[in-house]
Amino acid sequence: MGLLMGLMIYGAFFYAGGALGFNASGDIARIVFFHVPCAILSSVCYAVGAWFAVVYLFKKYPRRKALEIDAKSGIAMELGFLFCTLGTITGSIFAGMQWNSYWNWDPREISIVIMLLLYASYLVLRAALAGKPEQRAKLAAVYALVALVPAQYLIWAITRIVPSTMHPKNPLFEKESLSLSYKIVLYSSFLAFTLLYMWLSQLRFRAYKVRTRLEGKRG
């Protein structure tokens, strides 16, 4: 994962050239290698968190196993908040360089703010019920499912149905939009960031298990 991420970063700055139609000699287009994977993962993480919420609510497991499933849901949402934040920051940098304004309250920018608020509300809910694991797990799972539809709508639908947004529609998936160098680096970045998410998720879950074990010994 580290090697692939390093190669992707090298490719982003030294292999892929500046793109036509962009400011700063086209160099600002390189941010696509970081912004797009983060934006997509912010949606994927929510879907993963919602999936574990479904498993928690509708499958019966022993208490320890059920709380581990809840922890996996919470971890996915934590990482989703992280990637959503990174997607917002990189998108704002792009807007500032390309349109001379870091924030325009464009429909797409508004949608990402609401997405961040959905994530933040989930994390605040879990933090508020830290001493009540079963109640926290149930309420967090219900929240994740209730907010699933608006969360996915904000990520995938709004740029396709709101004609006034400055956000590009579908340039990444049109054959004429990307040169070979950009395709190689961009698709590598998808894989690199996905592996980063998986590694962070496993690391966070191991930390959860260690903390649970220590709390069990104290009890």
Question: What percentage of amino acids are in beta strands?
Answer: under 5%
Helix content: over 70%
CATH fold type: Four Helix Bundle (Hemerythrin (Met), subunit A)
- Compute the separation of the termini in Å: 38 Å
Class in CATH? Mainly Alpha
How many E strands?
A: 0
Q: In this structure, how is the largest beta sheet organized?
A: none
**Structural class, please?**
mainly alpha
Q: Roughly what is the average pLDDT, rounded to an integer?
A: 84
CATH architecture: Up-down Bundle
Sum up the overall morphology in one term: globular
Parts with pLDDT < 50 across at least 5 consecutive residues: none
SSE run: HHHHHHHH
Supply Rg. Answer: 19 Å
- The tally of structural domains comes to 1
Query: How many helices does DSSP assign?
Result: 8
Entry keywords:
219 residues, Four Helix Bundle (Hemerythrin (Met), subunit A), mainly alpha
State the gist of this model.
This protein has helices at residues 2-15, 32-58, 63-99, 107-128, 133-146, 148-156, 158-161, 180-218. With 219 residues, it is mostly helical.
What does this structure look like?
This protein is mainly α and 219 residues long. The chain has one domain: Four Helix Bundle (Hemerythrin (Met), subunit A), CATH 1.20.120. Helices cover 76% and strands 0% of the residues. The protein has helices at residues 2-15, 32-58, 63-99, 107-128, 133-146, 148-156, 158-161, 180-218. The longest helix has 39 residues, at 180-218. The model has no long low-confidence stretch (mean pLDDT 84).
